[in-house]
Write a structure and sequence with these properties.
Length: 782
């Protein structure tokens, strides 16, 4: 990818990394093309954080498998996902139609889906050659010679390669032939065979088709392209099987691209991995996707027809619950800003509150390059971020000492960042068992509109090889009431001199790099503007997890400031946030808080937060400084063509409580740590002031996915050391009600990559998957 022309000005540089184990190939990509982006849909182009995995040594399976109706079925050699031949359900006039016939692809066969997901429906060899990487318009390059066999231009997720259309006829390559699809058009308009343009069609598109094995053109329906084609085996070595593949002259199975339907794959011949596609159709005639149902042919035999069946759709989940009431607030003017760009370095924006006003004049003290700030109106890339921010106008917070201060949150934009000004007071009055802020803290964050993938850092640490927690072990056994001088684990960043990056070698193959979060300073903010810190307290809390003091339910009392422990309120805060209860940050249509504190927390149940079945997809509740959203605990893993979520799962952390005892084997360990992990119902069962009886995740090989949510005795101190991360990317939880998150507490779901707030450690993002803005080093104004 070196020297790639890229998508154009303002877009991230394309990135691609490939790793492998003996069994698995892993491809990591940001989904940005190497060539000029041509806007042919209203969806735009956004960088992604893809990690695709597929078998390194594929084998033909006993039965074939559907390709996804919607979403990824493979990856091209430039890291861009490959989709099947059909579009989604919108617009209805073209539902599940053929985008090639509809001419809504660029000349390389690609375009963007909702959420800016760039993908292929057709593969053009000249766009995917190494020599094309530096070309901004490779479609203008010469076509490859038909006298030469085509190269590999992609891989299906069953591991078999995808070649271009030309192949040698024998091992010696005495001749080259164009490979042909065995699929025929069946629903074409009578009298239109040989059409020259769609003007000949009464209600369809004129496109290249195969009819009884003969290449021609005809008018095909605008909708349901799978239902208007049928496969039949044909004589001749040039014809492919139903999956658009065959055994080549060398005896290896592989796929080819073809000039007619299905263009790339018609099904999988091997066993595919799940990389984000879904084969859940919406019902009706479009659900009648041909599904192979016979044993694949062996090498040296011709393909035979495979029966067609209808796939049964999965019903969408819903409906969503209706909130019982909305919060009460003082009537205020509408939260608005002036529209249009401005040429002055620091424009004046009209807002209903002047509380944040003085901050904008200081913006360049934090960000010297921020000299061209203006309204965010009309800045398309900013809208997702600003529409997730809470309107706190008119909310007053009582400070420690009895005075009140109006909360504020305002935003401005330049071409690269959204800037968010806040005084860190939020939208609810802190509960009585938590310390109120004694004064406002003026913060000015900047959030990148386009995320930047982390490359290979000059210095990084293997997360699996860190041993700093042995210091915590020794300190606790010798001086349990005195903490180490600094956070000992090394999993978070506690100083400028520390290495800022970690990496994991994944179970599915490949290496992933992360940026450490700050241990004790902000890494992001909730939608009300209040800062989000890491998962632990400072040395006065012995680097422990303040969420461990949570009660089981809202009806129970819990320890607070009166007992000298740094507990959190039921929204996850105490002047800043170490956790985030998503119900506290839901927004009404006008972006005000949907619930008051008492309303939001009245349903608090920690066991449900950990382990209940999700019925509604969580929204955005904040942002990290790398530009990634933080969402609540319920994840949409698949959407249909109408955008409806068809698979909702609970986000489960991949960290489990393992205890401090795993870091040593001192003879005195039993006396000091003997109650670790013991089953309990109350704190008294732990019989040690350093332990809490708390809900958490614990390793259990007999449980689905290998972890279980239970109450056990947990050490309050050194939370990074007492919780062990396990790479669960290869864990099969397809039958479970949850999905595992990555090391950073994030996942790529149907809507892209996001972090999630969980009910167990680390509660909030525990590392960064993208490069953060310089807010990570400080966002506080004087």
């Amino acid at each position: 990818m070196s020297g790639a022309a890229g998508a154009g000005v303002g877009y991230p540089t394309p990135s691609l990394a490939v790793g492998c184990t003996s069994a698995t190939v892993t491809v990591q990509s940001n989904g940005i093309p190497t060539y000029q982006y041509v806007a042919l849909t209203p969806n735009g182009l956004q960088a992604k954080s893809y990690t695709f995995a597929f078998p390194r040594n594929p084998s033909v399976a006993a039965a074939t498998t559907n390709v996804p109706l919607l979403g990824n079925m493979g990856v091209a050699v430039n890291g861009i996902p490959i989709y099947a031949v059909n579009e989604g359900a919108q617009p209805p006039s073209d539902a599940y139609g053929n985008p090639i016939a509809a001419s809504i692809l660029d000349e390389c066969g690609s375009h963007s889906a909702p959420q800016g997901t760039f993908h292929f429906h057709k593969l053009q060899v000249k766009c995917l050659l190494q020599s094309a990487v530096s070309s901004s318009q490779p479609w203008n390059n010469a076509d490859p010679s038909p006298s030469q066999p085509s190269p590999i231009i992609g891989y299906a997720f069953d591991g078999f390669p995808i070649y271009g259309p030309y192949e040698c006829t024998d091992v010696s390559c005495t001749a080259v032939q164009e490979m042909r699809s065995g699929w025929d058009a069946t629903g074409y308009q009578a009298g239109t065979v040989g059409c020259a343009s769609s003007a000949s069609c009464s209600n369809g598109y004129c496109t290249a088709v195969s009819i009884n094995g003969v290449s021609t053109t005809a008018c095909v329906p605008k909708t349901c392209t799978w239902s208007n084609h049928a496969y039949s085996a044909k004589a001749g070595s040039q014809y492919l099987d139903q999956c658009n593949g065959h055994y080549g002259p060398n005896g290896d199975y592989h796929y080819h691209t073809t000039s007619t339907f299905p263009y790339i794959l018609g099904c999988y011949r091997g066993t595919p991995t799940n990389n984000g596609g879904t084969d859940t159709p919406p019902g009706g005639t479009c659900a009648a996707i041909p599904t192979p149902a016979t044993t694949p042919p062996t090498a040296g035999t011709s393909a035979t027809p495979i029966a067609t069946v209808t796939r049964t759709p999965t019903m969408p989940i819903g409906p969503s619950p209706t909130p019982s009431s909305t919060p009460t607030r003082t009537p205020t003017p509408t939260f608005t800003a002036t529209t249009g760009p401005t040429s002055t370095p620091t424009p004046t924006l009209t807002v209903s509150s002047t509380t944040c006003g003085g901050m904008w004049s200081q913006v360049t003290t934090l960000y010297p390059s921020a000299t061209q700030l203006g309204s965010c109106d009309g800045v398309a890339a900013a809208q997702t971020i600003i529409n997730s921010l809470m309107n706190v106008t008119g909310i007053s917070i009582k400070l420690l000492g009895g005075t009140t201060k109006e909360s504020c949150l305002e935003y401005r934009c330049d071409s690269t960042y959204v800037y968010v000004a806040t005084n860190n007071l939020g939208h609810y009055q802190y509960s009585t068992n938590n310390p109120r802020p004694s004064a406002e803290t003026k913060l000015l964050y900047r959030i990148p509109m386009q995320r930047t993938a982390i490359g290979v850092p000059s210095a990084s640490q293997n997360a699996a090889a860190l041993t700093g927690c042995t210091t915590a072990y020794d300190q606790y056994l010798s001086f349990p009431d005195t903490s180490t001088m600094g956070e000992p684990s090394g999993y978070c960043a506690a100083g400028a001199a520390q290495t800022k990056y970690l990496y994991d070698d994944l179970a599915v193959g490949g290496r992933t790099y992360y940026r450490k979060v700050n241990c004790l300073t902000p890494n992001g903010f909730v939608d009300s503007g209040v800062e989000i810190l890491g998962s632990t307290e400072s040395s006065n809390g012995k680097f422990g997890d303040p969420a461990v003091y949570y009660p089981d339910t809202a009806a129970q009392s819990y320890e607070g400031v009166s007992s000298g422990v740094p507990s959190l309120d039921l929204c996850g805060g105490h002047g800043h946030h170490h956790a985030s209860n998503d119900r506290c940050f839901e927004l009404a249509a006008d972006r005000t808080a949907l619930y008051t504190y008492s309303q939001a927390t009245s349903t608090f149940n920690l066991q449900d937060w950990l382990d209940s079945t999700c019925t509604e997809v969580s929204g955005v509740i904040g942002y990290m400084f790398d530009g990634s959203p933080i969402k609540g605990p319920c994840v949409c893993m698949a959407r249909d063509g109408n955008g409806n979520c068809t698979s909702i799962k609970r986000a489960r952390s991949s960290y489990a409580y393992a205890g401090l005892g795993v870091w040593g084997n001192d003879a005195g360990e039993s006396a000091a740590l003997g109650v670790e992990g013991q089953t309990c119902t109350a704190d008294a069962d732990c019989n040690d002031s350093h332990f809490q009886c708390a809900w958490g995740l614990f390793a259990d090989n007999s449980a689905a996915g290998g972890t279980i949510a239970v109450k056990r005795c947990q050490l309050v101190e050194y939370s990074w050391c007492t919780h062990a991360y396990a790479d669960r990317t290869a864990t099969d939880v397809s039958s479970a009600s949850f999905v595992y998150l990555d090391r950073c507490n994030g996942i790529t779901d149907a809507d892209g990559y996001a972090y999630h707030a969980t009910g167990s450690f680390p509660y909030v993002p525990s590392c960064l998957r993208y490069e953060p803005s310089d807010s990570i080093t400080g966002a506080t104004l004087n």
